[in-house]
């Protein structure tokens, strides 16, 4: 298929890998920010093909992983209320709150529905005027415009039975948080192509300059990712720290101004908690006062839900590349993909989940779900 | 604009929540053909029924009865919508059980058909389903010999549920079970994967993928007979329905204590399926099929079996996709097109569309 197969070409991939190998003369640690890129890296085994000198650190860019426990608990509370149709992207249904997930709420009779767009939820609100329809608005800058559009439309149509449970997060403050954290090992970034296709590239030069890191706007197909790595390594070898666009077929310098205008009309910047990381200032969006009527937190009075996250795992250090997943005592024992302690094990593309699978691959015996045995086997990754 | 205080982020204080313990109620994932389904079997049904026959966890049980080897299988069908491109609930209910019998090498002979009807369903709908069952049975060479009907009150069902059970005879010299996979076996899939799941998704969710995708629902007993005519030494057959090829291969790997290594570029994924999965963030390996089988065949017989499959209408797209290995027992690994590897784990429940 045009524009997909071309970016999967094994021969071109080998050429890029050879070039990366030839360019890298010393060890470099790059972070891919976006969970979609992590997924592609794991799916295609790109991390295993890179030369030893180039290490990829999987960043905190999976919106499912980083949605705070507190917000999940609010979602569970709202979804449990009679008369509510709770709409969500599919992969949020399995993310654990304190004691259950949305699947469990559905199993107990809650009306929880998977939708592919907030506009689908809006249609449900139009078709069910006697029900309260709530959409779980999570995600980075990529999903924010459509969510903003849904609220905008709800107001235009005079729909009073539609609201959003908002947990939007922004990439630049997360990059800043990572770079200012003690012992940060990240030397360059693959910036998230889809985020930049909305927001443009204007937010990044200041970060690249301040932290002296190359930032390469990168796409999601294997060749996109390899090209992003190639350019980041080339900059590092030359001592440069510029913002580069390696994804020009989707990203323009100015982004998508109409989408940005829609975000700015509906949302305002706020501090946000990130699951497994903590509070990052100015790292999220919330609905502005003008759209407060569409804020599910207020409508259902769940603002008071406060969930403490007991310190049991070291996902934060994993996210920064400070430790490997296998160095965490909980890894593979109390923390597995089935019973995730933290963000990096929640998502199938989280670093811990990926290591868990690779480690099992090299284990002498099959470890079935729920086993608490530990095998001291190094991952292949 | 709040004050920027990036210094509050200290990884030493980054924390995680307590784990989610097992569900105390049935959730949709228990019917998804993945790890949750397996746990339901292992933790509730197998201990409760207390017999060794169940422990094989094959698609059908092979029983010694009156001097004959009888394959016996049952399956319930709860698909929504009832009618979809390429088939309907009726086709599925016949072909599904016929195929479960065929996966033990049996020649399917007789089926039962039990209906649970919801009050208010139009009789024309019931008739269409029954007629499609009759036609599918004729095409598969089986007889629907017995049945039952129950009606539940409006709101207590989902229109029509059908449960079929079937019996067939297993030829002498044939022993096909998931535990019989051996290192070296060729792993063959009978045609393009993912068509049924995408067909259902496209009508259920109102999604358009550029071209209409039709379900692959079909009876496979004839194809199996053609394979066994080449050699009775087929080790494993499985029809990768719920949970797709990924779940079936994991079950085989676990049952046999072997590993499976697939070549990603060899796996036949139609463009429409690849596009739909790309759009939704799903993996075609976990998408349901209703007219495909995966076979583990001794390497010395692989070419002959492949040729026989390709000569049969249901196996025209048969492809060698990998091999059974002694390494990483119980696990399925894919060699990616770029030369890396990834693990294909047993899915937990049903696949979920990803946000990004």
Automatic annotation (TrEMBL), chain A:
KW Calcium (keyword) present: no
Superkingdom to which the source organism belongs: Bacteria
Biological process annotations from GO: protein maturation
Pfam families found in the cross-reference section: HypD
Gene3D superfamilies (UniProt xref): 6.10.20.100, HypD, alpha/beta domain 2
Family statement: Belongs to the HypD family.
Protein name: Hydrogenase formation protein HypD
Native organism: Streptomyces qaidamensis
Upper classification of the organism: Bacteria, Bacillati, Actinomycetota, Actinomycetes, Kitasatosporales
Automatic annotation (TrEMBL), chain B:
InterPro entries named among the record's database cross-references: HypE (IPR011854), PurM-like_C_dom (IPR010918), PurM-like_C_sf (IPR036676), PurM-like_N (IPR016188), PurM-like_N_sf (IPR036921)
Protein name: Hydrogenase expression/formation protein HypE
Species this chain originates from: Streptomyces qaidamensis
Sequence ranges assigned to domain PurM-like C-terminal in this UniProt record: 182-328
Residues in PurM-like N-terminal domain copies: 59-170
Superkingdom assignment: Bacteria
Transmembrane residue ranges: none
A Gene Ontology BP annotation from the UniProt entry: protein maturation
Homology family: Belongs to the HypE family.
